[in-house]
UniProtKB/TrEMBL annotation:
PANTHER family: ARABINOSE-BINDING PROTEIN-RELATED, SUGAR BINDING SECRETED PROTEIN. This is ABC transporter substrate-binding protein. InterPro entries: Bact_solute-bd_prot1 (IPR050490), SBP (IPR006059). It comes from Micromonospora zhanjiangensis. It comes from the Bacteria.
């Protein structure tokens, strides 16, 4: 839920008003009251809903929630706080931002001291490894993963003479090249754009489906020579030049409006995006359905809850983590918000497997999204992953906006990445 342009880093997804004091204000952490703790989250993921669930079950607990900003802004605020400012008791860290904090694990409480060693087996192996240090310290507990799928408008597909049944639609695009061909058929038939944009709906899906991304198996930077990254980048340019894109940057005002107006027919939708689509385009209920992503599997998103070392109330924060990120807690969150659990024990739970969503034509979202991640072979995510992803996506967005010529895009992106990393 960054890693991308500010609007896109707000992944996972419906802004809420921030509650509590702002990060960077003077003073210590929220309170020395053991029943009060301060929680920093990023916007657009409806964290307040989870806080309300917890405080309703524990009315004696007071949580001061601050929605700091995008995932990038939240990570930046945390970096500043860890350098000597006010730290929260609990903080949400987006997956691509986590590696930078893993370079200084002593800034955080080793959650094994609070009980993480007893529950680490509850989580997908490749996910719990990310917040685990080489010597076994655990500095974060995963909240969700972002299984991939494609949301599509059945009414618009029907008008274009395309099939509307989700199984038939999935068969239309076993590959991204096939996806583009369907898009060109749609544009030719309707005169309208097919996909919301290519940077996030094509590039960020394809680049997250490989066996290696911006770092090699030796944990050294490889973004500029990894053919999988270049192939995903070139694929995105090809998709843009095919004329299928509405050129609406994800999560922008134009994108939000376009969801409701039918300005595009498909959106690459990780599980955490479903709730945002419902919130931003409520009048389109029943017009969407969910099909398999080209390539069949992959992950986009995921976050971790961590406790800074100088937190005033680490036990209260841990109690929240242990309850809300338990298998039962993550299942409940999926049922209410759509974020895919990181706890595989619930992947066979009838509540998850049988979960359908009327907004998406009763698509079996539990089954579709778990199938997207169960056989995933993860790649190493390094300290500069977020920065690299941001610059690659920004360049592709500039191509869509007519600011960078497609022929110059790759070299421009590499220059921007190198400048950003040096900076």
């Amino acid at each position: 839920m960054k890693r991308v342009i500010t609007a896109v880093t707000t992944f996972a997804t419906v802004g809420l008003l921030a509650v509590g004091c702002s990060p960077g204000s003077s003073g210590g952490s929220a309170s020395s009251d053991p029943k009060t703790f301060e929680f920093w989250s990023f916007t657009a993921i409806n964290q307040k809903a989870d806080v309300d669930v917890y405080t309703k079950a524990h009315p004696d607990i007071h949580i001061k929630l601050t929605e700091v900003g995008s995932t990038t802004e939240t990570a930046q605020a945390l970096t500043t706080a860890l350098a000597g400012g006010k730290v929260p008791d609990l903080v949400l860290i987006q997956g691509d931002d986590l590696p930078k904090f893993m370079q200084s694990p002593d800034n955080f409480v080793d959650l094994n001291t609070l009980g993480a060693d007893k529950i680490k087996g509850d989580y997908l192996d490749w996910v719990i490894k990310q917040p685990t240090t080489p010597d076994g310290k655990i500095i974060g507990i995963p909240t969700d993963v972002g299984g991939m799928a494609i949301a599509y408008r059945t009414d618009l597909f029907k008008a274009a003479g395309l099939p509307t049944n989700r199984d038939e639609v999935s068969k239309l695009w076993p590959t991204w090249d096939a996806f583009m061909e369907v898009g060109k058929r749609y544009v030719q038939k309707t005169g309208k754009a097919f996909v919301d944009n290519t940077p996030t709906s094509v590039f960020f899906q394809a680049v997250n489906q490989g066996t290696e991304r911006y770092y090699g198996p030796d944990h050294k930077l490889s973004y500029d020579k990894n053919p999988q990254v270049k192939d995903a980048f070139d694929l995105t340019l090809k998709a843009f030049q095919s004329g299928i894109s509405a050129k609406q940057t994800s999560f922008s005002a134009g994108w939000t409006a376009g969801l409701g107006k039918g300005d595009f027919a498909v959106v690459s939708s990780p599980s955490w995006m479903l709730n945002q689509m419902k919130t931003n385009a409520p009048k389109t209920a029943g017009k969407w359905d969910i099909a398999t992503i080209p390539g069949g599997s992959g992950n986009w998103g995921g976050s971790f809850l961590a406790i800074p070392k100088r937190a005033k109330n680490p036990q209260a924060a841990w109690n929240y983590i242990a309850e809300m990120q338990s298998p039962a807690g993550e299942l409940a969150h999926f049922l209410s918000q759509g974020s895919l659990p990181t706890t595989p024990s619930v992947y066979t739970d009838p509540k998850l497997v049988g979960r359908t969503d009327p907004f998406f034509s009763d698509a079996p979202i539990g089954k579709i999204y778990t199938q997207s991640v169960v056989n995933l072979k993860p790649f190493y995510i390094g300290p500069e992953d977020g920065t690299i992803g941001t610059e690659l996506l920004n360049t592709l967005t500039s191509v869509e906006q007519g600011k960078v010529a497609p022929a110059n895009a790759w070299n421009t992106a590499l220059t921007n990445v190198k400048n950003a990393i040096r900076g």
